């Protein structure tokens, strides 16, 4: 253990930044199950996937064996504009809680997208540009991914079509305006611009939309427009790969001071932030070199890990995407409109799902009023106004730090502060006004949407 | 000149951060004129000022001779939560412009207030706390100062009453919500809660408010509430002192790489950001140790330097504050409601006013549509969505870099990127929709409001 005084913020140098992403799958004994063709129920081939995704991203998606994949120089140059992100020692939060625990957080909010999403957005946009495409299509929920992709596309001069979940589009007009400022077109989903959108609206004209539905529209727009491919900000293996930069930087920073986390905590929606944060640590755990307690935190209103099933399911409402084996609440599951912020996807990264299934990590679900209370406590002492998503991790980090206070254990806690809450002030206002509710789906609701999952083995 | 490769972002280490603020006045041959009592037209004494301001801040306000003033440890600890701020080499902007110029910007937006305002907010809140006060009152225009003060007060457990210029209060409901999240009370100004507010509303019921008016209300609230003092985010000498941390860090970072700016550019509203950025450089210039071209950039709709007069004037609409000798448009001047963002104060820091008067710096005014065009160009290549205020500096930095392209000169340009534009998306939307206008006040309008200035020497 080093005796060096640990600063509030540990920045690694630009030349210490990772040159390669770490591919967690290479160290998994049980690999994540392959994506399946929704028609044939057979594993998707690279050729099939290339109709939807860029070729090089398909290779990354299917690569379960290469441990390190080099980050192209152009992407590293872009990373240098907003990375390394700081690893912050939460001295003030520790003091406020009176805990013997040491709390660190990796803060990914110091860029205009306000979150970690930019790490994968620039990678996906880069490979699209390299392939000579005109543009990309995508969906966005809370708007962080859409903003990130708009920024990456503006930088590379690629066209960008974003389908934004209608409830977010209406609650977050400013998000739309940021994307527009970066030159993207933004359509509220479901929309009349796609066949799948028209069908969903015909069945349910008052729907506030869902990520699953927006994905269907974005995929349709990609396959029906010449020179476009679809990109996705979470769930996919390639996204966990790109996001490994979060964990790699965290580990380099901690190693500088001889620090090793006992507990690693991240919020989990589709798994991009959590998967990226834990990657190198989980790699050590899988290889038996170290042990870490890993905790995924999800909203009680969208509890894929804690109340979903580990089965093959559709990734989208329109059922046109490949099937993934994952913890899922059913592709028709839409969290109640009272649910604030992101983490609203019905499924979960197949990589994380397999690890959870195999006992390498835990999951807990938390109520959103508790999440916002933790967010405000954190904001007042640490300065940063956190995203509601990230605040799920804050809530559990505080809980663990309080447990340490009770037991007297000086554990080292690392959590992912994946983004800022500047665009979530309607939710903060509801919380401040005491009108925020805590919707929890019923067992029947979940069973009903799960019943539509395809029956595969 | 060092041969070290200059990274995209230069972070100085925590232990390299300044331990003292630099007091520019100590090196000025002609000191800024003293604040005057509005009743007697005699210089304000410390005792008189202490009715409005905290005692230790009064000392700092009046101290024209101490070159370095130590930053208390508690403030340095707070600074460590969000400082050092990065000094960014704008490689991508340089490339986009095809300029031989080297462009650097000091980015102060990486904190929840979204701007440099936190640097002085924590200092002023600290001295209020140290004096045993219950709380502080203030005004805010664009909302950055109010947010910063709310954050500082939440951290120190001080009460915080903010009077927010009505037009901003209405255009930026989220700003209000951030302040509320940090526990502040926020009142749109002019309001019925103060005598001066009631009087202004009686005379002009449809006013959208002004900084000058909000100042009057905040001062009245401070002097009529036991245990409260007034704090101000700009204009005052003490603010330029606290903000010197921006320039000091910039200089330390540049010195590491043997870099020396030829041109230093900052936006100027009340002068807090510009004054802070230029402080140590201007110190060298005043002492004859180095030369720098310093450019203040102001909006054409509120052109204090370029079209105002250098006279004693009221700092507030209600004419209850001390008088300051400064470049002013008259205390009744209210920029047109079409004017977006901050930089809407009728006056200017007495320190900067004196320096400008004595020929140590230049000033230019720019149209807001040009400012937003520069902002979007910058955002696309540098990633950061800039505040409209900061974009005034961007506009002129780009102009100077293009001049370098034309002349072939490889000048080094440093500008202040004082904040982010996340809360300014109504203005961006207007610009994107092509409905933003460029109001420029008439000579008559300025002459009319200047006619109300008190006649002193």
- Approximately how much helix is present in the residues of chain A? 40-55%
In whole angstroms, the N-to-C terminal distance of chain A is 49 Å
The two chains with the largest interface, and their residue counts, are:
A-B, 43 and 41 residues
Oligomeric status of the shown chains?
Answer: homodimer
Would you kindly provide a written description of the structure presented here, covering whatever features stand out?
- The structure is a homodimer of 457-residue chains.
- The first copy, chain A, has 2 domains: 3-24 and 80-113 and 238-450, Rossmann fold (3-Layer(aba) Sandwich); 118-236, Rossmann fold (3-Layer(aba) Sandwich).
- Chain A is built from 18 helices and 15 strands.
- Chain A has helices at 46-49, 55-62, 73-82, 91-97, 118-130, 144-156, 166-171, 173-181, 195-203, 211-224, 237-256, 272-286, 304-307, 350-357, 368-382, 388-407, 425-432, 443-450, and strands at 9-10, 20-22, 68-70, 87-89, 102-107, 135-140, 159-165, 185-189, 228-230, 263-267, 293-299, 309-314, 323-328, 362-366, 412-417.
- The first copy, chain A, has a 7-stranded mixed beta sheet, with helices on both faces. A 4-stranded parallel beta sheet of chain A has the order 8-7-6-9, sandwiched between helices.
- The relative contact order of chain A is 0.15.
- The model of chain A has no long low-confidence stretch (mean pLDDT 94).
- At the A-B interface, helix 3, helix 6, helix 8, helix 15 and helix 17 of A face helix 3, helix 6, helix 8, helix 15 and helix 17 of B.
